[in-house]
Each structure stands twice: as structure tokens, then as C-alpha cells.
Fold:
Amino acid sequence: MPANVAVVFAYHNVGLRGLSVLLANKLDIRLLITHKDNPEENIWFDSVAELAARNDIEVITPDDPNTPEIIEKIRACQPDWLFSFYYRHMLGADVLAQAAKGAYNLHGSLLPKYRGRVPINWAVLHGEQQTGASLHKMEIKADAGPLIDQASVAILANDTAHDVFQKVVCASEKILLRSIPALLAGQATETPLDLSRGSYFSGRCPEDGRIDWNKSAWEIHNLIRAVAPPYPGAFFDLREARLQILGSYYRDQPASGTSPRIYWENQRCWADCIDGKRLCLTRVAINDCEIDAAGFQQQFATTELPIT
Structure:
């Protein structure tokens, strides 16, 4: 059987599992292109570069994978396949053209929904009940090529984006395990995506975690869990202090008061929201230091304050 030569673009835990599946299927991986870890980013995930090194695969970390030098390096590998697993840069036409048998990307949503950046965080933010992983053929337009396979995962009401990401990692491995052999055998089915049935989303920044107390308890809960650690977290400013809300729990309970407020009751922190529902704030911090009722009292000289 002829060797199936691959060049892989990968990062993060999905990249690690994707590379692992390719290795299990005996592909000849001649080059891994990944990212340098950003010292300003919380690196809570595993290193795909370390896995490549264990398997004597050359690793490079270019700032731009579309330069003539990188394209020539890929061409020298004579790849049958290109695979992209949670790689953060767009691959241009000249890169994709190097794959003799095809270039494929693994995306963390049920395409065509949530194309673009941080799809899991967006799905949680919007209160979706499911998302998943999709393997598709790469085209110049992001996340738009024909679908090879996908698998769904549930999003429960109190799942954080990190909880859902762990499920998506498992779904990603599942679809690769059943799709890679079909690709190698030339038996994979391609299904065109109807892009009108989904939307494209951009990346998010820490400021996007600011809580708007004019929204409902459910919407605020979705924001908190979408950006909860290891992501930057939700926050709001109260009496010249910045409160970081690092976790919440939603039970569809009625508020105990008549106006929006934050307060402590039986050693739990609560927020009565504008829609008449209350939300349990499970982790509260000031200046990255988590506080309890006593810490709140020390900061504000009270355990109850109005919020607007």
C-alpha cells in the first residue's frame, strides 16, 4: 500500500487528538505547522508540538503560513493530504493547492452553523442546546467547503464553554476515527454546505465579557459560562471596583426582591435580574482574588448593593 504523505496544521487539544488519529492510521506526516504559545494567553491545553517531537516529526511555527518560503517547504514534502485541526490562520489557495488528494479542516460546530472563530463560546453565549464537530474540505472561504462528517454534542443549561469544548474534543476524535480510513480509501462522501443556514462569527476579546445588567438572567448566565475560566471571565464595575464573575448556576428561580441587586444569602452570592429572575453567582472575585460574603462586606461595607 503506498504511503499517504501528510502535512498537518494543528494546535490545542483538538489538534493533539487529530494528530493522534492520523498517526494511528499510519500516515506519513512529514511536517507539523503550529503556533508559538502566546505568553499573554492562558495555555491550559496540551502541546501538539510535543506529540510531534515524540514521533520525530519536524515542527515549525511561522507567523504566516502563506509566505513563499513556507509554501515551498510544504511543496518539498509532496503531500497527498493537508489537515487543519484548530489551526488559527487561514490557509490561502497556494497552500491548499499543494495537497494532491485534498485538504481538510476540523471545525468545532455543526456546520454551516457557527462558522469562523471561537464557535463553542458563541454557541454557549447564544444558549444553544447542542453543537458539535465537523470535518469538511477546505476552500478559500472559511468553513465553507463540502462536509465529510460531523457529530453533535449536548449543551446542558449549566455547561461552561470549557465543559462543551471537552465534549467537542471527544466528538472530533470520533469523526476522525471513522472518516480518515474512508478518505484514504477514496470512499468519503462530500455534501455541499448550505451557507444560508448558518452565520459567520468573529473572534472575541476580554472586553466582550462585560455584563449588561439590562439583560435577562438567562442571557447573563450564558455570557458568564461562555467566558468562564480558563477563558478571561465575565465582569462588571461596582463602586469603583471591578467584580469578576467566574461562574454561575441557573435554576429559573424568581428574584427575591423587586429591583436588580447583588447580595449574599446563606453564604451564596445572588443577582436579582431585570426580568424578575435570580441567578446564583458561584465564583466572585475582585482583582483576581476570589471573595466570599466576608470579603464582599469588607470591600463594600454591606452584603447587598443595587446593580444597573
The chain has two domains: 5-201, 206-306.
